[in-house]
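Recap from last week: sequence in, structure out.
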Amino acid sequence: MNNGKNSVKIKVYDKKYDRILYKSIDELVPELVAAQVNIDFELEAIKAQTIIVRTGLVKKAKIFGGKGYNHHKEADICLQDYCDNWIPREKLKDKWKEDFEQNWQKLLRAQEETKYLIITFKNKVIDPKFHLTCGGATENSENVDGSKVIYLRRVLCRYCIESPHWKNVKEVTLDELEEKLGVRFNKSSSINRTNVQGIIEEIERDEEGRVKRIKVGDKVIKGTDFCNSLGLDSTRFGFKPVALRFETRGKGHGLGLCQYGANEMAVEGKIAEEILKYYYTGIDIKKYEKPDIDRPMFNRSIVIDPGHGGTENVGVIGKEGLKEKDLTLKIALELKEFLEDLGSKVVLTREADEYLSLKGRAKMANEVRPNYFISIHMNSFKNTNISGIEIYHYRGDKDGEVLANFLIESMSKGLESVNRGVKTADFYLLKNVTTSALHIEIAYLTNPEEERKFMDYEYIKRVAESIADGITKYYKYQI
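Predicted structure tokens:
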């Protein structure tokens, strides 16, 4: 539980001036909420939106293990990307005028009464989708973006029926359809056009093309009567549609919280947490932990993969008989302790001398979905004088590359070993683990001097500590 007085600051990219600003979460939340919800809504509905906004910020921020802003590697978010979904406090004064103080205090109360609260699913921060009006039911995520998200399940919603967005009508001309969809319609003469199914059908013409009879809806009418009723100049006529009228129900993608539904639930006496748990399936509302620079790994997860294992996959064997499979496991077990002391959640692909296929290792990692996957190995070469550390990442994995550089610098200094560089590779695990993955070649077991170092268990601890130190420096850099 975070009882600190100071709000966490995150890095915001200011696209207009091409700079990074540090803004507190508490500073950002009211401004974002103000732009995303009707200020006249009930307080509990605004509190629900406040929790959603805070959840979104924590989800993105690197200090909480998020991926940050895709288009600027140093930033957590870019406010310009919110477009109409962010209004700075000064502009809210212009918008609300004499109502500013009353509205602003409402936002601050919503923030204070939901202090530090975020939405989680199985102890992970969710991506809190929301929309204006669902129109009777929200939607399953796979029907919108193709991926199944357990907490974004379809729920029935009678609450938004009074929303101004419950039903809407928009007319689109055929010319607009052609332009916006990149299509082309048949340009034949309207005189020769015949049926519009269910509206105008069964047109009977004479040899000159004049309409003798025409079925309109459920009634057959003489051509002359039809012309007289509509004031047409001649029975030699045809028709063509020039516009389509679309009737819609609801507004938005339909995922997650329905804002107008949430407000009606608040009118009926539901509190913010009840509202959120109705629209997001199986979630919990918890207080986020304030990042601690002394425990920068808090709430991060890492999968450590001790390379090789079992009689089937021994790996490199040194001249003195040391086996790669044994050394990688010893290093991984020590590394696990170091990282857990720093607050990380650590999973080992194996904890004993056993065989595990590459496919099995990748499957385990992808089920955990860690922040990073690190596979530990010992190197070999026919020239026994070759020594040093190499680290590999998959091409295009920018986050992995940054971590790899922190690791190799820490390891080469801490172990007084040769830095052989960070490189790209197409190793199976680097390609098939879906999170950032690294392959560390710690030393050349074919080098007698390097092999002898590993006969001292204190050196194995130094190796693990140097890796943990590199990871720590990486995450402190993120903070």
